[in-house]
């Protein structure tokens, strides 16, 4: 796919580690220049990894819940590379603790939705005009297995990730005729820093998570990255508004 991505530019949020970092590296391997966006300073490590492979990358600080941060970050895309072709709206946070709806603090609900759902909207709002200038491109938004099933004790995260799928489908219909393909990826249990927090970083916590995966293991960030890059490629040219579940069979049990 290198010839397709060559001389094109990808913007990746939540790219300091985990799925975001793996996807930024995957875009770079395919020949794209990458803008690495995150609130974490580890975004600079991702850039160094990309540059070590011979590709071009720039790090930008971006809190996706803040409109000005998003606009500034995308301004850096244009300033450094002059164009935007692909966006992976991946930045997200997990709910702090398993809590039923009636016991969930309103502030926690707002925190999750401001980042996991509003952040996706905010990014697409400002990415789409830039992609239109290039005559089209592709956007992938990160939902979750929690976007297609209910998760007990996880109402804020589950609602936000369901919302990402609805937002993706609506936007896909708005821009399909304008040559912007918009899809979502729905990861299952992936071995990332977020998953380490979710499991409590214990062998027992990891074993419980793995027991829920029919394939008997957690997924790798690189497996999600490969899916995202494929969704942005010519090979997925007829894929519009799809929520692609990549979860080792977890949600079909």
Short description:
The chain is built from ten helices and seven strands.
Strand order of the largest sheet: 3-2-1-4-5-6-7
User: How many structural domains?
Assistant: 1
Q: At the first level of CATH, what is the class?
A: Alpha Beta
The residue fraction in helices comes out at 40-55%
Number of helices: 10
CATH superfamily annotation: NAD(P)-binding Rossmann-like Domain
What is Rg? 17 Å
CATH fold-level assignment = Rossmann fold
Order of helices and strands: HEHEHEHEHHEHEHHHE
Determine the structural class based on helices, strands and strand pairing: alpha/beta
**Low-pLDDT residue spans:** none
Strand content: 15-25%
Describe this structure in words.
The structure is a single chain. The protein is α/β, with parallel strands linked by helices and 253 residues long. The chain has a single domain (2-252), classed as NAD(P)-binding Rossmann-like Domain (Rossmann fold, 3-Layer(aba) Sandwich). The chain is 46% helix and 15% strand. It has ten helices and seven strands. It has helices spanning 2-5, 18-29, 43-52, 67-81, 106-116, 118-133, 155-175, 193-198, 203-211, 221-232; strands spanning 9-13, 33-38, 57-61, 86-89, 137-142, 180-187, 243-246. The chain has a seven-stranded parallel sheet with strand order 3-2-1-4-5-6-7, with helices on both faces. Strand 1 (9-13), helix 2 and strand 2 (33-38) form a beta-alpha-beta unit. Helix 2 (18-29) runs parallel beside helix 3 and helix 4 (67-81) packs parallel to helix 6. The radius of gyration is 17 Å and the shape is globular.
